Amino acid sequence: xxxxxxxxxxxxxxxxxxxxxxxxxxxxxxxxxxxxxxxxxxxxxxxxxxxxxxxxxxxxxxxxxxxxxxxxxxxxxxxxxxxxxxxxxxxxxxxxxxxxxxxxxxxxxxxxxxxxxxxxxxxxxxxxxxxxxxxxxxxxxxxxxxxxxxxxxxxxxxxxxxxxxxxxxxxxxxxxxxxxxxxxxxxxxxxxxxxxxxxxxxxxxxxxxxxxxxxxxxxxxxxxxxxxxxxxxxxxxxxxxxxxxxxxxxxxxxxxxxxxxxxxxxxxxxxxxxxxxxxxxxxxxxxxxxxxxxxxxxxxxxxxxxxxxxxxxxxxxxxxxxxxxxxxxxxxxxxxxxxxxxxxxxxxxxxxxxxxxxxxxx
Length: 362
Hints:
single chain, alpha/beta, 7-stranded mixed sheet, Rossmann fold, 3-stranded mixed sheet, 8 helices
């Protein structure tokens, strides 16, 4: 049995990334195996998210701003994961980037990397970061991670390509410590939109909606809201009713305040009677690929925010699965190379020897 890798989780939120890293859960009747990982330290500054984390993981998580946490209080670890704040780089947000203090929090990741030098790290952010300032913002971040002593690879992954019933594109940055001589290879997609290329077809929204008509009427939009939709300019793509045969559009953190006059995904329950509703928190969680036994603390408002800000556990599981496999390979190769011994024989032969090979050179 492989020894568990010690994992530190920053900007943890409710724990979507952590669930994907640990594994050992079931989603849509598919079992996602457990990874050799143990979270030994987690941190977030949002109390409802921290409460949710404690409900599901049970281990200690520190409620505080990361810039107030001394590096020395963070334990040594093998892996760092961090979904650093995305609002400054989001299409939905103001795109302030580095002008928003949250856009500078990647420095906190670098601080921990330089101090503890874990074997590998995984960072996640929105796709919009790749376009900020014509790509210069991302280059600054990658250069800083690289300066901490890591070989970096990054890629935008589509959650639907990995079994998540949602059209959600996110940037992943993975770095292996330089001495491991490894550049991460991202996992290949296992789903595609039409499924005609030998892959499985994208998972549909309908697979996570038990019934179009929920028992609680609070999820329905009023007649006034529907009348406003009818008067709106369709050129702005208003009232985005979802097709149950396709993945949902991206769920955001403000689903509790979703409007028919916005671009948020909603459900058309009854076309003839013009009945629309928003997703329930449990439906939103399923769209993000959280298993049904994952509990959320706080009100619906808190749950929606936690869910919308989370990394889909199934997507992170696939990234983590590839990371653990490649980390094991690189550590094995490093061990094989490090046990090489060099000796000089009595007749001046140079002898190179390790566990697998013995070479004599005259």
